[in-house]
C-alpha cells in the first residue's frame, strides 16, 4: 500500500512537469500538421497508382493532332479518361510518345477517393509523377489549398515517392472566424516512411496569426484526434472543470489524457492507453491501461469501506487485457488496485455507474483439437473486496472424443484448486485444497422416425484437503438417458426491406433424464461451500460434468423437456441468424432427494433486420411459482436519426426496473438524448438523464447534460455537465 501511494504521488507530480513543458498551442498545430500529411499521402497515392497502360480515352469539343510534336490538343470540355481516374479541364495536351498529360484552366482530377481542383495539372504516366498549381483538395472535413504541388519518384520506385508542397493553408470546410487554420511556407512528405518536414508554420484564428513555429518534423501515423472540454458538479467532490485529449499512438492504439480540476479537492489526472487489434487472424489483442491520481486537499475526505480515513495521496490502476498468441494459446487478465475504496466512485463516477464489479485475475489457456488446459489465479487486491481467492486453479477438459474408433465417446474433466475465503477486511476465513475428477461415457443409437437415443454413464470424485478440520471426500455416479429428434425446413421468402431471400428453420426436441446418486462420502459436513454459484439465475445444469462451481454437489433425479429453434436468413449469398428460441421445462424430480426443485427457463434472441433486435430471458421456480429472473431488451434504430432501447429486468429479490433510452438526431447539427429508469416495486425514478448536442459552424461540438440519481449512498444528486469537443468527427 505504501508503494502504491508513493507511486501515484510521483505520477501526479510528473504530469505537472509534462504540462509545463508541452505547450497546448504546439500540440494543436501538430494535430493540423498531421491532417495535412494525411491529405498529402492521399494525393501522392493517386500519383503512384497512375498505370502506364492502357492508353486513356480523349474527349473534347475540338481535338487536333500535331504530327510534328505528336501532341493531341483538346479544347472545350476536355476530358482524359483512364480506367482509374478522370482528368478534365478547359484545355488538355496529351503527348502519346511520352505518356504525359497537361491540363490547363479549371483542371479537375477525380479518382482514388480524391478530387483535386487546380489551375494546372501535369501527370507523367510512366514515372507516376504529378505536378499541380493553385490546387484545392477536399479531405473531409478539411480543405487544403496550396500554390504548388509536385511529386518525385526516387530510384524509379513509385512507392518511395517524395511529395513537396509550397504555400499551404489547411482549414475546416465550415470555416469561420472562430475556426483555427494552419499556414505553411513549405512541406515535404516521404511517401515510404510517412515522415514529413514542415517549415515556417503559422497557426491562425480567422485572419489573425497568433504564433509561428520555424519547422516541425513528424509522422502521419501518429495522428492526434480529439479535444474535449467539460465542466459540472458532483455532490461528493463539488464543482469541476476539465479537459481531455486523445492521440493515436499506433495503428491500433490510442492514448488519452484527461485532467479535472476540483477547486475544493485538487486536480485529478487520468491517463488511458487502449489498443484493439480486431481478430481478423488467429492472433489478436485487446487491452486497456487506466490510471488516475490526485493529491486531495479536501478537508472532509471521509472514511472508506474499511472504516479508515481516506488518505491525501490517492490513486488507482486498472488493467484489462486479452491476447491470443496463436490459434491455440490465449492469455487474459484484469487488475484493479487503488489506495482507497472511494476514489473510483468519487472521481470516475461515470465509469463506476456502469462498471462496479472489479476483479483481479490472470489466466493462461491452451485449446487443443479435443481438449483444453487452463491455469487461473484470482486474488484479493483490495482488502475491502470480499471474495474467494483461487491461487491457483488448474483445469483440464477433454472430449467428447471417440473411444478407439468405436461409436462410444468419452469426456474427462480434471480440476485442482486452492481456495481461500477473504473477508472485506482482508482476513482469511475458510480454506480448502480441492482435487476434482469427472469422467463420462456415452453412445448414440439411431431409432426409427428420425429419433436418436443417447444413454450415458458418468462418475465424479472430489477430495478436499481442509486446513482446520478433517479432510472430506465425495464420489457420485450418474446414469443418463437422452432422446432427440430434429426437424429441418427451408422456405423461399423474398423481402427487400427485411433483406431476406430464404429462411432455414432448424428445430429440435429432446427429453433428458438424469439420476445422480452418492456412491461414497466422508465428512461431507466439513466441506466449505467456497466454489459455489452466487445466484442461480440462468438455466441450471443437470449433467454431472456440467457442474463447474461444484462444492455443493448433491444427488438428484430429474426429467427435463427441451425445445430449441433457429431461423437463419439468407440474402445475396450471406447468412445471418434471424431468431433463436429455446424452452426448457423440468417435468419431474424425485422427491427422495433434497435437491428436487423444478424450474422452467426460456430465452429468445430476435433480429429480423439490422435495425431491430429483441432478447428476453425468464426463469421460474415451479414449486413456489416465484419468478427468479425476468429480463428483456428491445432496440430499434432508424438509420442515424433515431435509436430507442427499452429494457426490463427482475432478478430474484434484487428489484424490478424498467429502463428507456432514446437518441434522436434533429438535423445535421442538433442531437438530443434522454433516458429514465423506473422502479416498479417502489414506484420511484432512481435515475433520469437528458442531453443536447449542438454543432455550430466550425469545428466545435457543444453539449449539455443533466442527470439525477436517487437511492444510492453517494450519487443522490442533480448533476449538470457541459462539454465542448474540438476536431471530434
What can be said about this structure in brief?
By secondary structure, the chain is mostly beta strands. It has four helices and 39 strands. Mean pLDDT is 83; it is low at 1-53 and 154-160.
Task: Describe what you observe in this structure.
The chain has four helices and 39 strands. It has a domain at 2-217: Lipopolysaccharide (LPS) transport protein A like domain (lipopolysaccharide transport protein A fold, Sandwich). The strands form two sheets. It has a 26-stranded antiparallel β-barrel. Strands 1, 2, 3, 4, 5, 6, 7, 8, 9, 10, 11 and 12 form a twelve-stranded antiparallel beta sheet that branches. A hairpin with a 7-residue loop joins strand 38 (700-709) and strand 39. The chain has 729 residues and is mainly β. The protein is globular, with a radius of gyration of 34 Å. It starts with a helix and ends with a strand. The longest helix has 25 residues, at 24-48. The chain is 8% helix and 63% strand.
Count of alpha/pi helices: 4
Main sheet specs: 26 strands, antiparallel, barrel
Mean pLDDT: 83
What portion of residues belong to β-strands? Answer: over 45%
CATH superfamily of the domain at 2-217, by name, is Lipopolysaccharide (LPS) transport protein A like domain
Q: Judging from the principal axes of the Cα atoms, what is the shape?
A: globular
Helix content: under 10%
Amino acid at each position: 500500500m505504501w508503494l502504491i501511494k508513493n507511486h501515484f504521488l510521483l505520477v501526479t507530480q510528473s504530469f505537472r512537469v509534462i504540462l509545463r513543458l508541452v505547450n497546448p498551442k504546439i500540440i494543436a498545430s501538430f494535430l493540423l500538421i498531421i491532417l495535412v500529411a494525411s491529405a498529402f499521402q492521399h494525393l501522392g497515392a493517386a500519383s503512384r497508382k497512375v498505370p502506364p497502360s492502357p492508353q486513356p480515352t480523349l474527349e473534347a469539343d475540338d481535338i487536333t493532332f500535331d504530327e510534328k510534336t505528336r501532341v493531341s490538343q483538346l479544347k472545350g470540355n476536355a476530358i482524359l479518361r483512364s480506367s482509374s481516374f478522370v482528368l478534365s479541364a478547359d484545355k488538355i495536351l496529351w503527348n502519346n510518345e511520352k505518356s504525359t498529360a497537361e491540363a490547363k484552366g479549371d483542371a479537375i482530377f477525380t479518382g482514388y477517393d480524391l478530387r483535386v481542383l487546380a489551375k494546372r495539372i501535369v501527370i507523367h504516366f510512366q514515372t507516376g509523377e504529378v505536378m499541380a498549381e493553385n490546387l484545392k483538395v477536399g479531405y473531409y472535413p478539411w480543405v487544403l489549398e496550396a500554390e504548388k504541388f509536385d511529386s518525385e519518384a526516387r530510384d524509379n520506385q513509385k512507392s518511395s515517392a517524395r511529395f513537396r508542397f509550397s504555400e499551404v493553408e489547411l482549414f475546416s470546410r465550415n470555416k469561420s472566424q472562430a475556426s483555427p487554420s494552419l499556414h505553411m511556407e513549405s512541406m515535404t512528405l516521404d511517401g515510404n516512411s510517412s515522415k514529413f518536414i514542415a517549415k515556417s508554420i503559422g497557426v491562425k484564428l480567422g485572419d489573425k496569426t497568433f504564433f509561428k513555429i520555424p519547422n516541425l518534423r513528424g509522422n502521419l501515423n501518429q495522428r492526434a484526434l480529439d479535444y474535449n472540454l467539460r465542466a459540472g458538479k458532483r455532490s461528493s467532490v463539488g464543482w469541476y472543470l476539465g479537459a481531455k485529449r486523445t492521440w493515436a499512438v499506433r495503428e491500433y492504439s490510442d492514448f488519452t489524457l484527461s485532467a479535472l480540476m476540483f477547486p475544493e479537492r485538487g486536480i485529478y489526472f487520468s491517463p488511458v492507453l487502449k489498443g484493439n487489434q480486431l481478430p481478423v487472424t488467429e492472433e489478436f489483442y485487446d487491452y486497456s491501461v487506466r490510471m488516475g491520481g490526485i493529491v486531495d486537499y479536501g478537508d472532509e475526505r471521509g472514511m472508506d469501506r474499511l472504516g479508515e480515513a481516506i488518505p491525501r495521496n490517492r490513486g488507482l490502476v486498472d488493467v484489462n487485457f486479452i491476447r491470443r498468441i496463436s490459434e491455440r494459446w490465449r492469455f487474459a487478465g484484469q487488475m484493479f488496485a487503488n489506495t482507497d475504496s472511494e476514489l473510483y466512485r468519487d472521481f470516475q463516477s461515470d465509469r463506476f455507474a456502469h462498471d462496479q464489479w472489479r476483479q483481479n485475475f490472470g489466466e493462461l489457456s491452451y485449446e487443443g483439437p479435443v481438449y483444453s488446459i487452463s491455469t487461473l489465479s484470482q486474488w484479493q487486491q483490495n482488502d475491502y473486496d470480499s471474495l474467494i481467492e483461487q491461487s491457483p486453479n488448474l483445469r483440464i477438459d477433454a472430449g467428447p472424443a471417440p473411444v478407439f474408433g468405436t461409436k462410444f465417446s468419452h469426456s474427462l474433466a480434471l480440476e485442482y484448486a486452492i481456495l481461500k475465503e477473504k473477508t472485506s477486511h482482508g482476513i482469511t476465513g475458510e480454506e480448502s485444497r480441492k482435487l476434482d475428477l469427472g469422467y463420462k461415457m456415452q453412445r448414440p443409437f439411431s431409432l426409427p422416425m428420425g429419433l436418436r437415443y443417447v444413454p450415458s454413464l458418468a462418475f465424479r470424485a472430489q477430495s478436499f484437503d481442509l486446513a482446520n478440520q478433517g479432510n472430506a471426500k465425495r464420489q457420485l455416479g450418474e446414469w443418463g438417458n437422452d432422446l432427440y429428434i430434429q426437424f429441418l425446413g427451408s422456405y423461399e421468402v423474398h423481402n427487400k426491406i427485411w433483406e431476406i431471400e430464404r429462411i432455414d428453420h432448424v428445430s429440435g426436441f429432446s427429453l433428458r433424464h438424469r439420476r445422480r446418486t452418492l456412491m461414497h462420502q466422508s465428512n461431507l459436513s466439513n466441506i466449505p461451500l467456497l466454489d459455489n454459484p452466487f445466484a442461480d439465475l440462468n438455466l441450471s445444469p443437470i449433467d454431472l460434468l456440467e457442474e463447474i462451481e461444484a462444492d455443493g454437489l448433491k444427488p438428484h433425479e430429474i426429467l427435463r423437456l427441451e425445445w430449441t429453434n433457429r431461423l437463419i436468413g439468407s440474402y445475396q449469398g450471406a447468412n445471418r441468424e434471424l431468431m433463436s428460441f429455446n424452452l426448457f421445462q423440468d417435468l419431474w424430480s424425485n422427491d427422495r432427494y433434497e435437491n428436487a426443485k423444478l424450474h422452467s427457463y426460456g430465452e429468445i434472441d430476435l433480429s429480423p433486420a439490422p435495425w431491430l433486435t429483441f432478447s428476453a430471458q425468464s426463469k421460474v421456480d415451479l414449486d413456489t411459482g416465484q419468478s427468479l429472473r425476468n429480463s428483456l431488451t428491445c432496440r430499434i434504430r432508424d438509420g442515424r436519426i433515431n435509436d430507442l432501447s427499452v429494457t426490463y429486468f427482475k432478478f430474484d429479490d434484487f428489484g424490478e426496473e424498467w429502463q428507456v433510452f432514446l437518441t434522436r438526431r434533429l438535423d445535421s447539427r442538433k442531437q438530443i438524448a434522454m433516458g429514465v429508469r423506473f422502479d416498479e416495486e417502489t414506484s420511484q425514478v432512481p435515475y433520469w438523464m437528458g442531453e443536447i448536442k449542438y454543432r455550430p459552424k466550425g469545428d466545435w461540438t457543444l453539449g449539455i447534460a443533466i442527470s439525477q440519481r436517487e437511492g444510492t449512498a453517494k450519487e443522490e444528486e442533480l448533476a449538470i455537465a457541459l462539454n465542448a469537443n474540438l476536431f471530434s468527427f
